[in-house]
Amino acid sequence: MFEAVEPKLAMEKIYETYQKDLNRKEKLIAEVSKVFTPIFESSKSIINPLEFIDVMKEKTQIHKRYTDSVRNTKREMLTFNKGPYASDNPERLSEQENEETKLLKRGGSTKDIYELGELKEVDWLFESVKKSIGFGQKARVVEKLPIKMLVFDEEKVMFPLEQPIEESNELTMIYIEHKQLAEACKILFDNMWGQGKDLSEIEIELDTSNNLLAV
User: Fold this and answer.
1) 58 and 20, same structural domain?
2) What confidence score (pLDDT) does residue 134 get?
């Protein structure tokens, strides 16, 4: 059933919607500026900033950047595992698992922190984690992660930009090559790692939860 609305009220409603969206974008710009301003100031000697900053909106782009980064990692990869995921199909998931396994086999290390709720709710995640642990990944679990984040060799980082609610399954990621920023991200990671539980401590709870989901 439709109800006639006075044009002025309708226009005010449209304006209010656009204003809220504008306010959200202004807030996002301000937050991103806090990150990029110090990076810019300390990196003025770099001729082309696109050499060390990349913004990706497509999951295929994010997947390629991630697998390339893992492939080029020599020592350590640190991860806050939090959805949405670019590995949300079997082919990309398999390729990401293979690159991490290769990193471990060539002597590198991977440390991952997962959210308890996502291990229970994302159907493929728990089995993927157990598989990776079998190859040498170190994993811990926390109730809540502050952000999705990846750190490679304390030199490169990836993290997401906020998405509108209606696009919550979409993903926009920023890739940055900046040693000081990566070192700061590692401090955050180490702090959360210290708060986490080993997967073995909650594995029975997770197995029970996943069995219930499978029924």
Assistant:
1) no
2) 92
- Alpha-carbon distance of 99 to 105, in angstroms, equals 10
- 20 shares a domain with 103: no
Domain that holds residue 33: 7-41
Distance (Å, whole) CA 162 – CA 178: 21
My answer on whether 18 and 107 are in the same domain is no
The whole model's pTM is what?
0.73
Burial (CB count <10 Å: 0-12, 13-18, 19+), residue 113: buried
Q: How many domains does the chain have?
A: 2
Q: What is the mean pLDDT of residues 146-155?
A: 94
Mean pLDDT score across all residues of the chain = 81
What is the distance between the alpha carbons of residues 81 and 114, in angstroms, rounded to a whole number?
A: 5
Give the SS3 label for residue 25: helix
Residue 83 covered by a domain:
yes
Give residues with Cβ within 8 angstroms of 39, minimum separation 6.
53, 176, 178, 181
